Amino acid sequence: MGKSLRRLAMMAAGLCLLACAATAPAVAAEEQAPVLFVSNRGGNAQIHLMRADGAGDQALTKTAQENTEPAWSPDGKRVAFTSYRDGNAEIYVMNADGSQPRRLTQHATSDNAPAWTPDGRIVFRSMRNRWANFYVMDADGANLKQLTDNQLDKGAPILSPDGRWIAYVVHGEKGSSDIHVMPSSGGAARDLTSALSKNQKSFPSWSPDSQRLTYVEGKDLTLNIKAIQVDGSQPVNITSNAYTNAYPVWSPDGKRIAFVSSRGPSR
C-alpha cells in the first residue's frame, strides 16, 4: 500500500468504531443474529460476541496472543478466525460459543484472512510460497488446494455471497492498488479498476446479488466510494466530495449502502 493511501486509510480508521480498526464486524446469516467483532479492551485483540441490540457482550477468545478476523460459517454454528497463539498467524475454527478451538493450518509462515464458501469450505491467504496467495480447504483443514500462484501482493479474499467470486486488492510495486476478481474455484483474474484511474483503491464490498462491488478510491486527501459490475462495466460514483468516505457496506436488500464519512461537524 502506498504512503498516501496508508495516510488516508488511517484517517478513515479514526472515523470508525474500535471494532472496525481490527476487522469489520461479522453478522450471522439469520435476522437479529449475534455480531462478531474484535476488541483490544483487554490489552490485545480478542474476538467478542454480542446480540444485535448490543447486549450480552462476551469474549470468545482469551489468549495472551491476538485473535482476529472472525468469520461465521454458513450455518452460524462455527467461527473461523486468525490466531497468533502459536507464534505466527494461523487459521483456527471454534464453536459459536468459543468452545473447542482447533488449529487448521500448520505452517511457519503467515496464514490469515479466512472466509467461508457457501458449501462450508474456507478460503484464506497464505505466505507459504513467499508471496501472498489464496488457498481453500475443508472446515477440518483437509483437502488443501492452492487457488493462485503468482507474485502479486494481494489483500484479503472477499467471497461473493453466491460463492462464485473472490474480490481482492492487488498492491503494485510502485504504490498502485486496484480491485481484482477471480473465480472462487481458481482461474484467471480480472482487473476491474486500473483502466479507470491511477488512484489507489481499497475496501471491496459485494452487493447481495453478487453482481456489483463497491470500493474506495483515494485521490489527494480524499476518499470516495465507487461501484462497478463484476464484469468491469458500469462504473459509477457513489460519493464525490472532498471528504473521507470509507467502509461501504450493502443493505441486505441491495438498495442502500452504509458508509463512514468525515463530512459532519465531528468524527
Summed up, what is this model?
With 267 residues, the chain is mainly β. 7% of the residues lie in helices and 40% in strands.
Explained architecture:
The protein has helices at 3-15, 18-22; strands at residues 26-27, 35-39, 46-50, 58-59, 67-72, 78-83, 90-95, 102-103, 111-116, 122-126, 133-137, 145-146, 153-154, 158-159, 165-171, 177-183, 190-191, 200-206, 212-219, 222-229, 236-237, 245-250, 257-261. The protein is mostly beta strands and 267 residues long. The protein has two domains: 1-22 and 153-267, 6 Propeller (Neuraminidase); 34-151, TolB, C-terminal domain (Neuraminidase, 6 Propeller). Strands 13, 14, 15, 16 and 17 form a five-stranded antiparallel β-sheet that branches. The longest helix is centred in the N-terminal third of the chain and has 13 residues, at 3-15.
Q: What key phrases describe this protein's structure?
A:
single chain; 267 residues; mainly beta; Neuraminidase; 2 domains; 5-stranded antiparallel β-sheet; 4-stranded antiparallel β-sheet; 23 strands; globular; disordered N terminus
Number of strands: 23
What is the overall shape? globular
Low-confidence stretches: 1-23
The class by helix and strand makeup works out as mainly beta
The major β-sheet equals:
5 strands, antiparallel
Oligomer: single chain
Distance between the termini: 24 Å
What name is given to the CATH topology of the largest domain? Neuraminidase
Task: Name the helix and strand elements from N-terminus to C-terminus, one letter apiece.
Answer: HHEEEEEEEEEEEEEEEEEEEEEEE
Tell me, rounded to a whole number, the average pLDDT.
89
**What is the CATH class designation of the largest domain?**
Mainly Beta
So, CATH architecture of the largest domain? 6 Propeller
Proportion of residues in β-strands: 35-45%
Rounded to an integer in angstroms, the radius of gyration calculated over CA atoms is 18 Å
Helix content: under 10%
In the CATH hierarchy, what is the superfamily of the largest domain?
A: TolB, C-terminal domain
